[in-house]
Automatic annotation (TrEMBL):
This protein's UniProt keywords: ATP-binding, Nucleotide-binding, Translocase, Transport
Key word ATP-binding present: yes
Protein's recorded name: Vitamin B12 ABC transporter ATPase
Organism, as annotated: Dehalobacter restrictus (strain DSM 9455 / PER-K23)
Superkingdom classification of source: Bacteria
PROSITE patterns assigned: ABC_TRANSPORTER_1, ABC_TRANSPORTER_2
Domain (ABC transporter) ranges: 5-241
Alphabetical list of InterPro entries matching this protein: AAA+_ATPase, ABC_transporter-like_ATP-bd, ABC_transporter-like_CS, P-loop_NTPase
Keyword Transport among UniProt keywords: yes
Length: 423
């Protein structure tokens, strides 16, 4: 590994309270590393130690093999730029003047801004989408605009490594992505090493090569997103349950916080919901219902189907069958059990053929004989090519029969969630 930063055995205390405990790490040149961890775990303190803003009581930090605390501040600023957490304070300067301050490490004393300095400042302001604000006073900007100006100032330093402390905290979702995509681009095209404290684990997962998970001043995990962002590690550090699922389209994984059992809505906690879905029609609803605290089951689903995969990821009980096989007695019986246990059955827009009509018949029996509550969602989703009934009218007549016996119909999953109190 071609290391840019090596921290060894760092111990840092504020007063008598140790914040970092014998912490060691290496960050390689050209990498994109995120630092995550719960509030107060020491992320900002670590960042300040490895940028020589504060000095540890014990341990050492090397930047390119040099003791960082011995490098002159001006020289250090040619290599390292920092976007601090708090970009507040009084900036009685214009945006242009503020961004040009980033050139100071490269300028001689009393030397004004050269044409090149202005060009670099413009380049950084265009990248961060603040060029149009160049003549405004920084004091008049919104939090998000100001944050982008500070990033522009840091880029104007032309650093080899950019350290950012929660750079997305003031940004709306569009600007969060724009900023991280910009950092990703600079990382790839200019070999800029990026070290960012991020609170959003999904953003960290999406953009980082490596993630450092800090807890109580110690590194509890350091590795690729897949190695660090496991449900177990997140539970241990953040004391929260999460489901980790894979996005079918992007291939990236999503971390979905699940409310703690005790925090779940009283109403949702003990309600069992069974879904008749398939082909991805149930993915979104499953996530929403699990997140809202419902106990969810589904079936019968073909093994390998996207709904089946999502159910497995979320740990949902599922009655399953091999693809292209008729529903076996075993799958039928398990589905019946799940239906019997359910307080509510939801039928989603699934094309019915002779292979899966049994599912609908089972729901119909549960409604007619067991008085189960049934909700039917009939949508033509963009993701799902709803083609309806391939059973010569049998599916339609079962659905119509259920409607006559009290099943409720909804035009969309959102409408249904509005009724049952999902998210
Ligand atoms: N200047 C300071 N003086 C005394 N204690 C401090 C100071 N700065 C931070 N601390 C304490 O050090 C601990 C770690 O703080 P730090 O800001 O590094 O955590 P963090 O992981 O970045 O937290 P957050 O996610 O809330 O930003 C906290 O308990 C904090 O109260």
């Amino acid at each position: 590994m071609d290391s840019l930063i090596i921290a060894s055995n760092l111990t840092f205390a504020y007063g008598s309270k140790n914040i970092l405990e014998d912490l060691s790490l290496e960050i390689s040149k050209g990498s994109f590393v995120s630092i995550i961890g719960p509030n107060g775990s020491g992320k900002s303190t670590l960042l300040k130690n490895i940028t020589a803003e504060i000095t540890p009581q014990k341990g050492a930090v090397l930047l390119d093999d040099q003791d960082i605390f011995k490098i002159k501040k001006k020289d250090l600023a040619k290599t390292i730029a920092v976007v601090p957490q708090d970009t507040g304070g009084d900036f009685a300067f214009s945006v242009m003047e503020t961004v040009l301050m980033g050139r100071m490490p490269h300028q001689k004393r009393f030397e004004g801004d050269s044409e090149k300095d202005v060009e670099i400042a413009q380049w950084a302001m265009e990248l961060t989408n603040v060029w149009h604000l160049k003549d405004r006073s920084v004091n008049e900007l919104s939090g998000g605009e100001r944050q982008r100006v500070i990033v522009a100032r840091a880029l104007t330093q032309e650093p080899k490594v950019l350290l950012l402390d929660e750079p997305t905290s003031h940004l709306d979702i569009q600007h969060q992505y724009e900023l991280l995509e910009l950092l990703d681009r600079l990382n790839k095209t200019k070999s800029l090493t990026v070290i960012a404290v991020l609170h959003d684990l999904n953003l960290a997962a999406q953009f980082s090569h490596k993630i450092i998970l800090l807890d109580k001043g110690r590194i509890v995990a350091y590795g690729s997103p897949v190695e660090v962002l496991t449900a177990q590690k997140i539970r241990d550090s953040y004391h929260i349950e999460v489901a980790i699922t894979t996005n079918e389209i992007t291939g990236r994984f999503n971390i979905i916080p699940l409310s703690k059992k005790k925090d779940r809505s009283e109403a949702a906690r003990d309600v069992r919901i069974h879904l008749l879905c398939g082909g991805g029609s149930g993915v979104y609803l499953m996530e929403q219902l699990v997140q809202a605290g419902y106990q969810v089951s589904c079936g019968v689903l073909n093994i390998g189907d996207s709904d089946w995969k999502k159910a497995k990821e979320l740990g949902i009980a599922v009655s399953e069958e091999a693809p292209f096989s008729p529903i076996s007695a075993e799958a039928f019986n398990m589905n019946e059990e799940l239906l019997n246990e359910a307080d509510l059955i939801i039928v989603l827009s699934v094309p019915f053929g002779y292979g899966n009509i049994v599912n609908l018949e089972q729901v119909s029996v549960a409604l007619h004989l067991k008085n189960k509550k049934v909700m039917i969602v009939e949508t033509e989703s963009e993701q799902w090519d709803y083609t309806g009934d391939f059973t010569g009218g049998k599916a339609d007549s079962l659905l119509a029969g259920m409607m006559q016996h009290g099943a409720e119909k909804f035009g969309s999953i959102r409408e249904l969630l509005g009724r049952i109190g999902g998210k």
